[in-house]
Amino acid sequence: MEQYVIKGGNPLAGEVEIGGAKNAALAILAAAIMTDETVLVENLPDVRDINVLLNAMTEIGVRVERLDRHTAKVNGGLIGDLSVEYESIKRIRASYYLLGALLGKYKRAQVPLPGGCDIGTRPIDQHLKGFRALGADVKIEHGFIIAEAEHLRGSHIYLDVVSVGATINIMMAAAMAEGGTVIENAAKEPHVVDVANFLNSMGANIKGAGTDVIRIRGVEALHQTEYSIIPDQIEAGTFMFAAAVTKGDVTVKNVIPKHLEATTAKLSEIGCEVKEFDDAVRVVCSKGLKSTNVKTLPYPGFPTDMQPQITVALALANGTSMVTESIFENRFKYVDELARMGANIRVKGNNAFIDGVSRYTGAQICTPDLRAGAALVIAGLAAEGITMIDDIHFIERGYERFEEKLQSLGAQIEKISSERELQKFKLKVSADRHFSVVVDRTPVAPKGKKPQMNSQDNQEMSRQRLEETC
Ligand code: EPZ
């Protein structure tokens, strides 16, 4: 089992490149099978959820050619099977996008009920309501959603809750229905807009994405395209909060600052400086953090996918804060783990009441889901001592080379899978520490003479190294 081991305390500094948006990419890859022609998708994040979806797609006959880590050619011209296997898709939520894509193109789809992170009950009634409104017969049998229609016909659909997944799924099916569809109370997230832009580049006729009314005029066929996915606003926000909690100075590159407005506003409120550039943001945080209140909301509100990250920051802020989770009811599971690191948080219903503490202390903790996992890593980066995080496969679902990107900012974090690697890490971080201690103490040597470490320094170093590794 792989774990992250982190030695906290280093302010993060430098520049980091953000990859393509996972949640846009999942929908776009599914939508890419709606033409028989070959589609080129660029700026794909190389994360586990994307790879699971691509595998499932190949199992129904989609040809996928990976040109490099972030680019793939997808051809849905030879799909032979309209039924997706449970085993190949059970771990990801976005499997439901194959429903909208297959139903739109072939008027039939059979997809297992979705899995994904355990952050709430996560019903899909709005997706099904939309498919039914378009004329599909939808039933759930033996763990599968089966949707079929003679013809799909455009319709007027009002979503009872603002749902990213339902908006995208209905948009895909309606793109190849007969006539016009209107989706009211649609989700406005940047990835909804990205999927609409992608479908339009394939010949679809979708207007209004990014507002709460989307109008779609169905077309008979879609065609090939080349498309580059937008940057991941949640990956970007995660690094922005990592800068905040470590009192760092980080420039997050390859982002669309407009998509980060809620995150930027909250970081400013808690005392960080955020500078926006054309395609980058710089977060500088030199002072102590201030408390605030935050409520998660659909875009452009504060994203639920950033809730654990801001909670980790507020638990270190001066004063009392309240975080309200209004999208998923089960998204505070990480709080018990954070408490093991010294946080003082009381959860009541969908509210977390936070009394800021002055520091975290490293502990062995478990990650309950993707974003919570990333937030716990951030806590570890700010903590005194060593933090070990289990179940990092959750984090790998949505963050590409997370530890490498953090290392490039000066973080002491490594992925380990044995006791030996842990000891090696501990030795390394204690040696790093002593290296700086030694440098500080060594008198400047006269020109031409090598500086010498005295034997007292040597003994002190060995003693402390032993203490750290025991
Ligand atoms: C998407 O999930 C994302 N997942 C989630 O990302 C993200 O947290 C969420 O949108 C909100 O932004 C993917 O894109 C694969 P919703 P989704 O439908 O589409 C309720 C991450 O960490 N609802 O917008 O499943 C639902 O229970 C994750 O990357 C219904 O009641 O979310 C929730 O309360 C996890 N009926 C609210 O709507 C429905 O039919 C919003 O859910 C659908 C949703």
Explain what you see.
This protein is α+β, with helices and mostly antiparallel strands. The chain contains 16 helices and 23 strands. The chain has a four-stranded mixed β-sheet with strand order 21-22-1-23, sandwiched between helices. A four-stranded mixed β-sheet has the order 2-14-16-15. The chain has a four-stranded mixed β-sheet with strand order 4-5-3-13, with helices on one face. α1 (22-31) packs parallel to α2. The structure holds ligand EPZ. The site of ligand EPZ has 26 residues, from α1, α5, α6 and α12.
Secondary structure topology:
Layout: E1 3-7, E2 13-17, H1 22-31, E3 38-42, H2 48-59, E4 63-68, E5 71-75, H3 86-89, H4 97-106, E6 108-112, H5 125-133, E7 137-141, E8 144-148, E9 156-158, H6 164-175, E10 180-184, H7 190-201, E11 205-207, E12 213-217, E13 226-228, H8 233-245, E14 249-253, H9 261-269, E15 273-276, E16 280-284, E17 293-295, H10 307-314, E18 320-324, H11 335-340, E19 344-348, E20 351-355, E21 364-366, H12 370-382, E22 386-390, H13 393-396, H14 402-408, E23 412-416, H15 419-441, H16 455-469
Parallel strand pairs: 2-14, 3-13, 9-10, 17-18, 21-22
Antiparallel strand pairs: 1-22, 1-23, 3-5, 4-5, 6-8, 7-8, 10-12, 11-12, 14-16, 15-16, 18-20, 19-20
Helix pairs in contact: 1-2, 1-4, 1-7, 4-6, 5-6, 6-7, 8-10, 8-12, 10-12, 15-16
Bound molecules: ligand EPZ.
